Amino acid sequence: MTAEALAQLHAVCFTRPPPWSAADFASFLNDPAHLLYLRSEHGALMGFALFRVVVGEAELLTLAVHPEARRAGLARDLLRDGLTAAKTRGAEMCFLEVAEDNHAALALYERAGFTPQGRRKGYYSAPGDASVDALILRKLLA
């Protein structure tokens, strides 16, 4: 999968935080600490999850599912596969940040066993939009 395709899907899925560029994704893809899980349908990228694993900790950096593929378990599967791989790489816990108003993502992460650990005030913002707090969530993998 190309960095450009990842950036295109990210732009379809996110306005806040601002979507990442192809250059952003290229740097992730060239770093062996990152894990990328993809799902395609008929040759079209429908979703991906990007993790970083360093010294016993994993972080879910982003999880994107095309709007046409949502509510079918794709995000759950991507999350599960990434967490399994992170554990295989020695991660004992996984962290993520999610906008407090992203109710669908919060429900997904809660069902997966993530629990609140903190808050970043005004972390997410977009031009012309009010800022939104990020919730920091954690899941033990051991």
Q: How is this structure best described in words?
A:
The chain contains four helices and six strands, in the order ααβββαβαββ. By secondary structure, the chain is α+β, with helices and mostly antiparallel strands. Helix 1 crosses helix 2 (22-29). The chain is globular, with a radius of gyration of 15 Å. The termini are far apart. The model has no long low-confidence stretch (mean pLDDT 92).
Short description:
This protein is 30% helix and 38% strand.
Quick one: overall form? globular
N-end to C-end Cα span: 31 Å
Order of helices and strands: HHEEEHEHEE
Fraction in beta strands:
35-45%
Identify low-pLDDT runs: none
What's the number of helices? 4
Question: How much is the average pLDDT?
Answer: 92
Helix residue percentage: 25-40%
Give the beta-strand count.
6
Determine the structural class based on helices, strands and strand pairing: alpha+beta
